[in-house]
Amino acid sequence: MPIRLMRHAQGFPGRLAKNPKHRFAINHSMALYGKDTVFTFIPKNGCSSLRYSAALSNQVIDGPDGIHWIAQNNASFSPSLGELVTAKYTFVVLRCPFRRVVSCFLNLIIDHPWEAQKLRAHALQHRLGFPTLVERGLRRLTRSLTKAGLTSVESLTFADFVTLLEVPGALQLDIHWRPQVDFLVYRNYDDIFRLEEMDGLVARVKEKADFTVLDTRALTLHGNEGRERIHDGFFGTTTVAAHRKLKQEMKVPAYESLYDPGLYDRVGRLYREDIELYLSHFGRSALLQLQETGRDNDRPPPQRHPPGRGDRIPALADHAGHLEAASADL
User: What predicted TM-score, i.e. pTM, was given to this entire model?
Assistant: First the structure.
């Protein structure tokens, strides 16, 4: 039996069932019954396709009409400790952290702008020191006002979004931008895939577990397939309203165009652990990187300890110029 070890088990002083990090990871893992297989699903990492395919495999839905069932049943196939330990095959899908946070902004924030209000309420609570109960009330109020059209996030930009994520505690407010390492239930998986290479995943899990993964993007409409990619210009300070207009025109900026050196550095600090994990499995060429087209030696180094998260990553951050994607946008 493979030695995988539970990622969050050791170091917690109480019962495993009461360990919040372990419980969170279990609630984002699924057992495939009759296949001795467990996988972890991470939002923005093809998780709708995985959850839908698991529901089909576990015989609780019978086709596309069941697509909405999966949203209310994320924990329905959560594995027991026994299933976690004895699984014959385990896998997870990771995504380039720089791409994932842009995808979150271009889809979740632009299509559902009230989601940004929870970040604004949290930032206000952090600044003024309101009790948590008051913060929850603010979130509900701002969400309702936004849905009713009485307040707006139309002027929000990707740079603003990153600033809100830097507020301590903000990364844990929503699973769509929460760090990927928080979702991992094992220290080691049998297979770790890149979202950017889903064809390899489909073939491999079919071979190892006889599990068929179906692409649900046409059902969920979460992606930007069919839209023209804009590669010229910088879109990091483009407003939500302008992005929405582009999407209505069937256009969307290429992911690299939302970054300048400063934003790239800040996102790198926020998701340092995710980046280290991604690099350890796929190497630097798989990561969205700054392309060096002439170093700006006068540019001051980034602040060493920005609000919210760890040290900077010199190897990823100290380049000026444009950005290029190592693989196609998803």
Answer: 0.82
